[in-house]
TrEMBL record:
Transmembrane segments: none annotated. This is AAA+ ATPase domain-containing protein. Signal peptide: none annotated. Gene3D superfamilies: P-loop containing nucleotide triphosphate hydrolases. It comes from Streptomyces boncukensis. InterPro entries: AAA+_ATPase, P-loop_NTPase. Residues 36-168 form the AAA+ ATPase domain.
Length: 337
């Protein structure tokens, strides 16, 4: 990671965002998809940077003098508001429509976009959501966490924007890397952590983050949207989007402390409330939101990000199941379950 603290936020040569660090491949892939499909959805865990990637693509297209209409759907509460938002788009010209944060109204957004794209042949839609729309012709770009070096560069940039310059010494670079790993290398979490560096050294911050409560309580200023005000807010929004069995499985999976197999999930988590035959579907639902990820692209081996575990563990304790699930994980690890 040598030298990354010294890297300025110089934008790429093609005029991309100066703050969009570590997303060169994703940016290029999004540009390619927008040329091939009239409906592209960027999906991923809350805080992964979907909105920033979409905004970067929109700015690139706007610089070509093509019309761009951007609509934040986070405040929409019904079908009528979805259609009202989409009515701002004219199909008479080549137009990019950006619908940001569609996850709370997926069905309504899919229906409205299907109608719009059928009538307005000049419109291309770019959607961000924690789940895909699931409509015909939809191209999907999954967005995961940053690579570690890029995450550390982003932490240094966000800290410098707040007037804190990291020294670049070996110990501080390692500490910064551990902070980013603790926060799953999520851009949102890294930005919130950088805000804490105005009052704490990196080492002090890392110690604070060893406490799950402290990591979930990382907060931004009033300019941060409420859904991203803390990691607890961010993961809480995903929790609201889950089905009841997905929420229960999320809580129980937190007992594994990271990586587990689908078979282990069935053996440890199944009971009358959560039948074994329902677990596969619930695992797929959590994976679709980025709350679980496949390890080395192996469908049978799954991993839950650390801060997602923290949130699930809070619910597990709230449900009164913490001791029972930890005991079952221990029995499973010893081959006794």
């Amino acid at each position: 990671m040598a030298g990354i603290f010294d890297c300025e936020a110089d934008g790429p040569p093609d005029g991309g965002s100066r703050d969009l660090i570590g997303r060169s491949w994703e940016s290029a892939e999004l540009s390619r998809l927008l040329k091939r499909s009239r409906l592209v959805t960027v999906v991923g865990l809350g805080g992964a940077g979907k909105s920033a990637l979409a905004a970067d693509a929109a700015h690139r297209i706007a610089r070509t003098c093509a019309p761009v209409v951007a609509v934040d759907m986070s405040g929409a509460h019904g079908v009528g508001q979805v259609f009202q938002a989409l009515s701002r788009t004219s199909g008479d010209h080549e137009t990019l429509l950006v619908l940001d944060n569609c996850e709370r109204l997926l069905a309504a957004s899919a229906r409205a976009l299907g109608q719009l794209l059928g009538e307005a042949t000049g419109v291309t839609a770019l959607v961000t959501s924690r789940r895909r729309l699931g409509t015909a012709g939809e191209a999907v770009l999954p967005l995961g966490p940053l690579r570690l070096d890029d995450a550390v560069r982003l932490l240094a940039l966000r800290a410098r924007q707040l007037g804190v310059r990291l020294s670049g010494g070996e110990e501080e670079r390692v500490t910064a890397g551990r902070i980013c790993l603790r926060l799953d290398c999520l851009p949102l979490a890294i930005g919130l952590a950088a805000g804490q560096l105005t009052g704490h050294t990196p080492r002090e911050l890392l110690v604070r983050l060893s406490d799950a409560e402290a990591s979930l309580a990382l907060s931004g200023g009033p300019e941060v949207p409420e859904r991203h005000r803390t990691l607890r807010h961010c993961h809480g929004r995903s929790h609201e989007l889950c089905l009841a069995q997905e929420r229960l499985l999320w809580a129980r999976l937190s007992a594994f402390g990271g990586t587990f197999t689908r078979l282990a999930a069935e053996k440890v988590c199944a009971d009358e409330q959560l039948p074994v035959e329902a677990i596969g579907h619930a695992l797929d639902g959590l994976t679709a939101q980025g709350l679980l990820s496949r390890v080395n692209h192996r469908a049978e081996l799954l991993r839950m990000p650390r801060t997602v575990q923290d949130y699930g563990a809070e619910w597990l304790a709230r449900l009164g199941e913490e001791t029972r699930l930890l005991e079952r994980v221990l029995l499973w690890s010893r081959g006794l379950l």
